[in-house]
Amino acid sequence: MPRTVLIVEDTDICRDALEVALMRMAGVDVRVVATAEEALKQLAGDSVCALVTDLHLPSMDGFALIEAVRSDPHHSSLPILVISGDTDPRTPERLAGLGANAYFPKPYSPAEVRVRLEQLIDAS
User: Fold this and answer.
1) Around Cβ 23, how many Cβ atoms within 10 Å?
2) Residue of 69, 74, 118, 72 whose CA lies nearest to 95
3) How many CB atoms lie within 10 A of CB 40?
4) Does the predicted TM-score (pTM) go above 0.85?
5) What Rg, from alpha-carbon coordinates, does the chain have?
6) Could you report the per-residue pLDDT of 53-71, keeping only the tens digit for each?
């Protein structure tokens, strides 16, 4: 049974590049949504083994999404990777405080994201 990785990204080019990189992972089903609200609906209904999110999303941002995910006992240990062009130097510390497992500033290496994601999935 494939493991499901949920990508939350509202920019087409970023979403497509990440989806292609992660689809190369063996035994992984990649699902993509454009908003945090859609992500929360997916998490409520489906078994997801990891979440990869941008921070700058319409309506609800990635910070609020991570807080919502971590407040749910069913997802308190879900691996969360963040990929963002956020330039605030406090962002990595803030994400760590919220419980994100990894942060990749844009531009990023899709191969590095894939390796870290595999490590987190295998460890959980």
Assistant:
1) 12
2) 69
3) 19
4) yes
5) 13
6) 999 999 999 999 999 999 9
